[in-house]
Design a protein that fits this description.
Length: 424
């Protein structure tokens, strides 16, 4: 293996994978000596697990609200989001023989509904690129170069303990955040990044379940229902899943980035839940049944809409008793179901989160090139930047955009042209 490189990339995730694809497509592979360092024994493990193995890689609808920074920088965000929005990821994959499908929420997946389609594409590009790789290898430290010098990257084989060092003219941190440590993104690079002089905000778990105060609803583990969750400017209807600690399910995951950001800031979070988001299930529907000649228990009146175990727990939680139903009690129960509120105590830990909020402060990164504003030839990409997508495919899309920007900026920085071979 060589000891000196033009570019070293820390992390063999989505960003590194798409970087190889863009470099191959531009005819630049082989023109630069590139090394990719990965802690795990294989690349693209997180992509393989995304979307429950289906790879939710993007979304038909992308807006600035789909991305969150703990410490926002509007000048960075306006430029970077424009690059995200303008990249036709679906069209790019279609041009590379990966046709897509979307679901009712606009989430985009490979037509095969298999992440293997995406990882296979990236693995093929990595193999064709000629880039060198070091697997089972962790970055343990980085020495900043002196003027005109090289980065010195200190590494260790996580299986054998063997230590080695490599040098590089340019260094890219594309090592993810702190979520999903079982897939290699454990936040261990954060302290290394800080030692380069950069400010790091966070990290906080995101796209994860939410913990609520103990109560009767905690006894409903495994029960699912449709509900509208509301918090500040977030409002969405979808499935929630009750657990013995709070709520999970798709809709809770969509809400979690907004909650996690505020909890990290020390704010109190109180969420509104509408358990009756269907307009047809109005007060009139239930009062008309309560006023008919058949007499119902108030529990029975709502049992055609809800699981009875849920109703019993909800009654206990909200202070209702099971009794004969009147129009007045039907209205009160309906209102309670429409306007339930609960505090969110915390989000679930990093090992249960899909991504983490926080990262290198955006104001310290040039959004046009992703180069550090503090250290020349140092670059950041993907989840390591304090600009994280919510649930719905936004983070793989962001990683691909980072890869595209990096391929363009690094090719320009090294003055590489198609057909000009690198001098070895």
């Amino acid at each position: 293996m060589h000891k000196s490189f033009d570019i070293v990339i820390i992390g063999a995730g989505a960003c590194a994978g798409f970087f190889t694809a863009f470099m191959n497509a531009g005819g630049f592979s082989g023109k630069l000596r590139v090394l990719i360092i990965e802690k795990l024994s294989k690349p693209f493990k997180k992509i393989a697990a995304s979307g429950n193995g289906r790879c939710n890689y993007s979304n038909e609808s992308i807006s600035p609200r789909d991305y969150i920074s703990i410490k926002p920088d509007r000048s960075f965000e306006s430029v970077f989001f424009d690059k995200i929005k303008s990249f036709d990821f679906k069209g790019y994959l279609n041009d590379n023989l990966i046709y897509s499908r979307s679901d009712e929420y606009g989430r985009l997946f490979p037509f095969t509904n298999s992440a293997k389609t995406m990882t296979g594409f990236l693995e093929t590009n990595l193999l064709c690129s000629g880039f060198e790789t070091l697997f089972d290898t962790a970055c343990r430290g980085v020495e900043r170069p002196r003027e005109g010098g090289m980065f010195k990257i200190k590494c260790e084989n996580v299986k054998t303990g063997e230590k080695l060092s490599v040098e590089s003219a340019a260094l890219v941190f594309a090592c993810g955040g702190a979520a999903y440590p079982q897939l290699g993104t454990d936040g261990s690079a954060f302290e290394i990044i800080k030692k380069t002089g950069h400010t790091f905000t966070g990290a906080a778990p995101s796209i994860c379940a939410l913990e609520t105060p103990a109560g009767p609803l905690h006894k409903l583990g495994g029960i699912k229902l449709e509900a509208r969750l509301k918090y500040k400017d977030f409002e969405r209807t979808g499935e929630i899943l009750f657990t013995d600690y709070g709520i999970s399910g798709p809709n809770a995951l969509y809400l979690s980035p907004h909650v996690s950001r505020d909890l990290y800031a020390g704010k109190k979070v109180r969420v509104s839940i509408d358990f009756l988001p269907v307009p047809a299930l109005s007060p009139d529907y239930f009062t008309s049944k309560a006023g008919c000649q058949n007499e119902y228990l108030n529990l029975d009146l709502f049992s055609g809409v809800f699981n009875r175990d849920f109703l019993k727990a909800f009654f206990r939680d909200s202070g209702f008793i099971i009794e004969m139903c009147s129009k007045e009690s039907a209205v009160k129960i309906h209102s309670a179901l429409k306007n339930y509120e609960t505090d969110i105590l915390r989000v679930r830990p990093f090992n249960e989160a899909q991504v983490s909020l926080g990262g290198v402060c955006c104001g310290e990164i040039d959004p046009h090139t992703l180069e550090s504003r503090l250290v020349k030839n140092l670059y950041f990409a993907g989840e390591v930047i304090d600009y994280t997508g919510g649930c719905g495919g936004y983070n793989i899309h962001q990683a691909a955009v980072c890869a595209r920007i990096l391929s363009e900026s690094l090719v320009a920085a090294f003055g590489v042209k198609t057909g000009v071979k690198r001098n070895n």
